[in-house]
Amino acid sequence: MTIRPAVASDAGALSDLSGQLGYPSTVTEIATRLEGLAARGNNLVLVAEDAGRVIGWIGVRSDLSLETGPFAEIVGLVVSEHARGKGVGESLVAAALEWAKERGHVRVRVRSNVVRERAHRFYERLGFVEVKKQKVLDKPL
């Protein structure tokens, strides 16, 4: 397995995996978003590749908050259903943590939907600690 930065030609696989996570997106949407994230300079999307096939991805960004200062945040993680439980997610998280450390961050945040109990156990096993519960509210514009 290889962990590497995502490239435009990964858009199809990233689209399929995002759908497994519950966020269906077209290949064009993913390609456009990937390009936009790369242009910002504070985001990274990594993929896990096995035998030439993308089997997972993680998104991480560097951010700054007035109340808590600088931090990195894992903003998405999905591993293909057939590859779960084989260390892929752990390898992706490790690579994201290394990226955050290289940028001088001393903490990494992750938000996880309250219904994703398996994901909560995964992150807790990796040393993440729950610090609060919250609701996320959207308003279409």
Sequence of strands across the biggest β-sheet? 1-2-3-4-5
Shape: globular
CATH superfamily: Gcn5-related N-acetyltransferase (GNAT)
CATH architecture: 3-Layer(aba) Sandwich
**How many β-strand runs?**
5
How do the SSEs run, as a string of H and E? EHHEEEHEH
CATH topology term: Aminopeptidase
CATH class: Alpha Beta
Give the helix/strand class. Answer: alpha+beta
Please give the alpha-carbon distance between the first and last residues.
41 Å
What fraction of the residues are assigned to beta strands by DSSP?
Answer: 25-35%
In brief:
This protein is α+β, with helices and mostly antiparallel strands. It has a single domain, classed as Gcn5-related N-acetyltransferase (GNAT) (Aminopeptidase, 3-Layer(aba) Sandwich), CATH 3.40.630.30. Helix content is 35%, strand content 28%.
Descriptive report:
By secondary structure, the protein is α+β, with helices and mostly antiparallel strands. It has one domain (about 1-125): Gcn5-related N-acetyltransferase (GNAT) (Aminopeptidase, 3-Layer(aba) Sandwich). Helices cover about 35% and strands about 30% of the residues. The chain contains 4 helices and 5 strands, in the order βααβββαβα. The chain has helices at about 10-20, 25-40, 90-100, 115-125, and strands at about 1-5, 45-50, 55-65, 70-80, 110. It has a 5-stranded mixed β-sheet, sandwiched between helices. α1 (about 10-20) crosses α2 (about 25-40). The longest helix has 15 residues, at about 90-100. It is globular, with a radius of gyration of 15 Å.
